Please model this.
Amino acid sequence: MGSPVPSGEGSPGASAATNTSPGLKAPTRRGTELVMLSFAAGLVTLALILVELNQERSLSLRILYLGLAYLGLFACAHLAVRRWAPYADPAILPCVALLNGLGLVVIHRIDLALEGTVFPDGSTWDPVAFKQVIWTGIGLLLFAATLKFLPDHRMLARFGYTFGLVGLVALLLPGVLPGFIAPTINGAKIWLRVGPLSIQPGEFAKILLMVFFAAFLVSKRDLFTVAGRRFLGMDLPRARDLGPLFAAWGVTVAVMVLQKDLGSSLLFFGIVLVLLYIATERAAWVVLGLGMFAGGAVVAWKLFTHVQQRVANWQDPIARYDVVGGGYQISQSLFALATGGIGGAGLGAGRPEMIPEANTDFITAVIGEELGFVGFAALLLVYMVFALRGLRGAIAVRDSFGKLLGGGLAFAVCFQVFIVVGGITKLIPMTGITAPFLSYGGSSLLANYILVALLLRISAAARAPQRIAKPKPQQPAIADQHTVMVERPK
Amino acid sequence: MNTPLRRVGMAMMVMILLLLGNATWVQVINADEWRKNAYNRRVLLDEYARKRGLITVADGTVIADVKETSDRLRFLRTYNNGPVYAPVTGYLSVTYGTSGMERAENDLLNGSDDRLFARRVSALITGRDPVGGNVQLTLNAKVQQTAYDQLTAKGFTGSVVAIKPDTGEILAMASTPSYDPNLLASHDVNEQAAAWKQLTAKDSNDPLVNRATQALYPAGSTLKVVVAAAALADGKNKDTPYTAKGSITLPGSQTPLPNFNGTPCGPGETVPMETALAKSCNTAFGEMAGQLGANKLRRQAEKFGFNDPDLAVPLVVETSTLGSIPDDAALYQTGIGQRDVQITPLENAVVAATIANNGKRMQPYLVSKILGPDLKSIDDTEPDQVETAMSTANANALRDMMIQSEINTGGEGRLQNVQVASKTGTAEHGTDALKNNPHAWYIAFAPAQKPEIAIAVIVEDGGDRGLGATGGKVAAPIGRAVMNAYLAGR
Model:
């Protein structure tokens, strides 16, 4: 990491000390954030203009609506941070604004390309960019609300078990509910349909369960560090302490079997493993967990056709190009990326509408095609900056719960990016999962904005000047006091 | 807790690095493999943005044109007189790819051929859009039209190939039923799909197949000229006697090998080779093949162009073969062009042309010139003698026998004032030869003494004559009309 932040645990920390030095006010860096946000807004506006010019060969008023809505929303977000978390990390929100803005542009771009298309089943393309703007608005509202009503992230630890229970139910609910409320879409049973709305409770469950695990591990930390036997140079945990790991593993397998959602189960298990590792500092947990996951994956591969399909598509997508549920999707994604090459086709000048699910799971392939390897690499680096800044907040914050939660949230985003981008570039088998902040979809966006708010809250706690109890007004030494004549009461 | 947090940070950076590395592989290093994959329609779509080259026949008449459109695929391919030329031009379809000349000369037509490199560079410098090169064919418009009209007049399924014997230029290549490639080139996806569905329907009789190059038929009696050529090469002459029996028994079996209708070939015990060929006596040729043996027969066939898997004109041509000849019975049957003998109409025309050209086999070809976008010739095809299949003396002897055969052949449309050398064939096929209508063959060249055109005609399944069809009645009139169209139009 090499970050200059001192290890905060236990000691008050040098930065806190300088922050409280008399006459020096800790910088909030909100101005920096505003400059970076403006830069992101500029890039997004430029991207939007390019898309319009390349697709329509003219600029329409739509650009103004979308652009203004975007600017307005992030101006509000910035103000919310100024008001409720003035010491928050200044780089995180601009990263999110850039990703979300780019996502909006790409979603709009796919809308333009598919406008008027009639599908074989007679349905027409339904433009979704405007809906995504609305979702962004609701997401930022939740973001601001989280900052306002959660002045201290440690408050969450109190509700750890409640969150855990709610999260578990939310995660498993679509898998066990009947088809009319929880329909199977694209082979995965992860949606709940409430009236006109489709929500993915798993997205929210991810955060709830992270809060639970962080709280649980902090309170029971000592138990896990009790050494069991030593084996191959590792301290193995005691068998009875393996409970939580087995529980997580069980939930993962349940998600994989009941909901056929490989991506979420991989993501969930990875997060639990990392939280355990951060809490215990024991590599043994990771090795053990990876072993269990590998075992589970092999068994799943042997038993379930949907797992076998994904693996076969990954090994040779072209050979299974014409098979139903075969390599078509991943092939299209690779064609897009390869045709984009180093420099890309140019925003709005490629043919990303040929990629299935171009505005959700495969949205990064669209960016790879139109912005080329250069843009694709930049995108990945923005994600990396986001995750590392989040992690930095976790390292700097002083309480164990904040460290665990912050580390977990930052890792979750990065790992999700790894799963989805690895999938579309054929590094690992494709598992349907959204790209954080980019993909179209309300649930994912809302959940991720809550996640951002939590990361900002934790980083704000780390950077804010520590409130040390005010020293009492100085009084002269007792010896220097005048002798006071006290009249004796009559 | 900070040490594990920092390690998690390392892990996150490793994940991003893995993604970057893999993206480099897909988008930069290995990009060509995916870009050039046949399933990648992006390349095809890019080609549409470029003005594709024209295809013209020998007199310069354009048969495949381009029209600028206002839709997203800038240029529309249009075919003039589509069904007549479709077997040669093939089609260019956004959805269904390419076939025929559109495929064989694709690089040239779309402008990416190396021979157009200098022009591409100058287009790049001058800022003009790069344009494809033009292809001028050897086809003679009048001969091609006659061939097509003759086949379609009675609704025949079949093919006609005409070759200029001394150069190998293909003067006509017709195949019926044909199709209108304009429907597949349409920019209206639904129109394309409807046409494709119709053209590939089970009862459509495969209009998309160019029978001249892609269909293999039993050669029937037309193969007797090859057998006779082998006998002549073996030291026999036109007076060598062969059996005149109406029917013989195949060696090593009880199966009879009868003449047509079981008629004896002549009044005596034997007939000379000349009479045997003129009357197309199966017994004599069975015996002839038996005396020659499989090896000599095969060698002669190969000299005529059999067993050449690489033949392309530049349309890819199926390989004609004598098939396996496991025993003497098979050898006898092969001698009359049955058993496993398989031949394309093009190859049969090559056989006729080779005899016509004093035994010298010329490489058949369809492209006479490659023209740049500026209509300057870039590349002229030079006639190429591949092989000497027969000595001049033997070729002349065989020609004389074929003149007798033409005199003996019935059918309408005999040419006035022009001597024709020919051989008919009535090829049995299918499991029950008595129930399947035979294919009618006719190969010929004219004028016999100074040949200018050689042709092969096949009409599948007896044409309009059913079981009573013969090569003379069904195929010969077509062949004569085609030759006449060329000779009269000189």
